[in-house]
Design goal:
Distance between the termini: 21 Å
Oligomer: single chain
Order of helices and strands: EEEEEEEEEEEH
Number of helices: 1
Number of strands: 11
Length: 138
């Protein structure tokens, strides 16, 4: 999810981008992060999310302590999995350095100076679905 402020200081609707042309699995649920300490909620509606400081990743964390391609989040039928991409400073979940870890609600991910808490999106109400319904209603 990407949010931008326009010149008039109004918040535009989130622009949700799909990086894959594959159809989304029926059991898929979006991934929601709460950025600490700001409590900003970020929702990702894609089955694969690359995190890093490079402009070419899906989720950019602008800090030199974050590798260009730091970690990847992959959806499988078992849920979301986080895998470190041999980053210099490591990826941490609940205070432990990981190479790969299945994510659960309320897990805290530490990537460089950034702290994200995993929130499970309610399958019946997700931001993406709400935006699509709103657009159809006109």
């Amino acid at each position: 999810m990407l949010q931008k402020l326009n010149r008039g200081e109004e918040l535009n609707s989130p622009a949700i981008k799909f990086k894959t042309k594959d159809s989304v699995p029926k059991t898929f649920f979006s991934l929601v992060f709460e950025l600490e300490p700001s409590k900003i909620l970020l929702e990702f509606y894609s089955t694969r999310i690359v995190v890093g400081r490079s402009s070419g990743v899906d989720f950019c964390l602008p800090s030199l302590c974050v590798s260009r391609r730091h970690c990847i989040l992959d959806w499988s039928e078992d849920g979301w999995n986080l895998r470190d991409l041999d980053s210099k400073n490591g990826t941490f979940v609940n205070g432990f350095r990981i190479t790969s870890k299945k994510l659960r609600p309320f897990d805290e991910i530490q990537i460089g100076i950034f702290s994200l808490v995993v929130k499970k999106a309610d399958p019946d109400f997700q931001l993406h679905n709400a935006i699509q319904t709103y657009k159809r209603a006109g």
